[in-house]
Amino acid sequence: MELYRIGIVRERKRVLRELGVESGGVKIMAEKMQTLWIKIRRLRTPAANILKQDALSIGADLAVPSGVITCETEYVDALLIATRAQLRTLARKERAQPFGLKRLAGELEGFLNEPGEPVKIMGVLNANEDSFYAGSRFLGEAAVERIEAMIGEGAAIIDIGGVSSRPGSEPVSAEEELERVRPICEALERSGLTEKALFSIDSYTPAVVEYALQKGFGLINDITGATDERIIALAKAYQARLCIMHMQGTPQTMQLDPHYEDVTAEVDAFFTERIEACEAAGLSRDQLILDVGIGFGKTLEHNLELLRNHANFLRHGCELLIGASRKSMIDRIIPTPTEARLPGTLAIHLKAVENGATIVRCHDVAEHRQALAVWEAIGL
């Protein structure tokens, strides 16, 4: 008799198929292969008691503080532990329960979302002299040559910005920003490159965004999280995709004293509010991309927590973007100059992809293409 442990979900599915299990059975068993841990904040105590019993009845569990059974406090935090199959069943059960559990059921179902898109590489090009990584700065014909090279290396998306958003960077006028990106946009229009990749404008300035969309760009990358309704309206008018990033403060203030009670919960609540605003304006969730904003108003610990909990944001039903290329969090883990941070970048991005990211924003396209190809070959 021989035994060995099967470590990853894809391999488990392969073994089931080799055993001759029919496809419907493989799908059912796959739901039992992954255990989810879901933190629930401010759950009404009567609801916690009901949820606890319902979870236990199907083989799941709910960790709650002592005193819940006697309702000593009005609200509690709890930790739900369930397989995907159990979570699906539990959500159905809670739809018939009081104390806010019907609404909770809908929230729980969101955690069953999985990435529905292949992983895509977004290459970065900065049309300014102030970006934190000099290797991303290109102007004029050199910019077009760099874009052609990134597409050849495997970039499906090219992100172009005329203003630096590094901590402490100075804002520029809309006119100056437009003058920086205009020559590149015009050169791209002449070259026909906008037919070979999806082009993204890294801006929150309506005039700049509209100019880029007129020149064939199809994605707005807004570090302010689309808090300006004019940006949402432009996405609607041009049928463009919109990336909503979370940032605490502004590039000038964001790293002075970042503070959160619960960074994952607060970023998640921000996304919920912005998605609702976008949907109210006529955008669909498949047009939206979410970016937790690594390094934008976060300490190292905030960044690490968001990366560990990255799969949480899949529940919104939107694609997730990760952008930590050569950022200073790497230097805070192990002192490293910007030019030498590629290994740390790859480690962060591969972990984020493992946790649901399908768009990787980076400076080093060829190296990411190789790393992702090897990662995909190993499997999940």
What does this structure look like?
There is one protein chain. The chain has 3 domains: 1-32, no CATH class; 34-110, 2-Layer Sandwich (Ribosomal Protein S8, Chain: A, domain 1), CATH 3.30.1370; 120-378, TIM Barrel (Alpha-Beta Barrel), CATH 3.20.20. It has 380 residues and is of the alpha/beta class. It has an 8-stranded parallel barrel with strand order 4-5-6-7-8-9-10-11, surrounded by 6 helices. Strands 1-3-2 form a 3-stranded antiparallel sheet. 43% of the residues lie in helices and 16% in strands. The model has no long low-confidence stretch (mean pLDDT 92). Helix 9 links the parallel strand 7 (219-222) and strand 8. The longest helix is centred in the middle third of the chain and has 18 residues, at 174-191. The protein contains 14 helices and 11 strands.
* Biggest sheet details: 8 strands, parallel, barrel
CATH-scheme architecture of the largest domain: Alpha-Beta Barrel
| Highest-level CATH class of the largest domain | Alpha Beta
CATH topology of the largest domain: TIM Barrel
Strand order, largest beta sheet: 4-5-6-7-8-9-10-11
Sequence stretches where pLDDT stays below 50 over 5 or more residues:
none
In N-to-C order, the SSE pattern is HHEHEEHHEHEHEHEHEHEHEHHEH
Based on CA atoms alone, the radius of gyration comes out at 23 Å
Give the amount of beta strand, in percent: 15-25%
**Number of domains as seen in the coordinates:** 3
Give the assembly state of these chains: single chain
Give the end-to-end Cα distance, rounded to a whole number of Å. 27 Å
CATH homologous superfamily designation of the largest domain: Dihydropteroate synthase-like
What is the percent of helical residues? 40-55%
The count of DSSP E runs of length 2 or more, i.e. the number of strands, is: 11
Derived structural class: alpha/beta
Instruction: Figure out the total of helices.
Output: 14
Mean pLDDT: 92
So what's the overall shape?
globular
EC number: 2.5.1.15
Cofactor: Mg(2+)
Pathway: Cofactor biosynthesis; tetrahydrofolate biosynthesis; 7,8-dihydrofolate from 2-amino-4-hydroxy-6-hydroxymethyl-7,8-dihydropteridine diphosphate and 4-aminobenzoate: step 1/2
Catalytic activity: (7,8-dihydropterin-6-yl)methyl diphosphate + 4-aminobenzoate = 7,8-dihydropteroate + diphosphate
